[in-house]
Amino acid sequence: MKILFKKKYFFFRLAKSVTNSRKQLISKKGWIIKLENNEDNKIGFGEVSPLYPENIKACEKDIALIPDYLERSELLKQIKKFHPCVQSGLNTALAELNGELVFDREHRFDKIYQSAILCDSENILDEIYIHMKKPISISEPITLKWKVGIKDRKSEELLLEEILNLINEKIRLRIDPNGTWNREVATRWADILKDIYNLDWLEQPLSEDDLEGLNSLQKKIPVALDESLLKHPHLINKWNGWQIRRPSQEKNPIKLLKELENKKAYRAISTSFETGIGRRIINQLAFLQLKGPTPKVPGLALKQTPKTSLFSNNAELIWDKL
What we know:
CATH class of the largest domain: Alpha Beta
CATH superfamily of the largest domain: Enolase-like C-terminal domain
Number of domains: 2
Distance between the termini: 27 Å
Mean pLDDT: 94
Strand content: 15-25%
Largest sheet: 7 strands, parallel
Number of strands: 11
């Protein structure tokens, strides 16, 4: 099969910047890729969307190596040498081209309870007040994600105390230190939170390399791995707790698709602030996850998504507008 390879560069500013314990994310850049098989007019779209700017050059270098026309078998050989984000975009596009991945445009997550809300860490108490006062006629709670490790430890522990005294059954909480805690701090928070029914998990509380500490902490409290899975992909088959899965950062999102189709538990789907192209597979995976044995709302960071055509559900429209 002869494939036509096309690419277009994108850049956008987030509607709201995101600050974690390591970085502040203000904008995103990457590439939309399009694969065409002219013999039967089939098309597949993918997105190369590295989360952090330092990976852009590596992705750009890899994409430049792909010729405009090549055999499918040749592309499959090349893919394995590329940056994981480039692999992700190509594997997604190939799966759509081959009919292995068929998107349903009705997998929308636009209701407040359908996605975790990424809070502004500076104003999390205000956000909690707002959501608790809303007259919600549905039974589902609202899930808030709080990024910590940004302020000094004492300030955040006092804030945690206020939050726990405030929240009720309307609120669920995810706490994400982005791997910056040491074992002492993580253990202290685990001791405070271990009996809190509102907590979904601590997300990557320790360094991605501290697997011993993470395993030990998991015995006390639900721990979700994020950065550890990206740096040590073999943990996907070993970690029996929650896994924060970021399709655009993994080498092959189709493997995650198969995991969810096979009803694998403790997978949670998270955005890396993709365009509408990348969001198609995120929504598809999130829909599957919700039908699995351990349903949890995905983390889609909808407040950070600009309201432009770049975030349409229509892949052809996005391509044409770029």
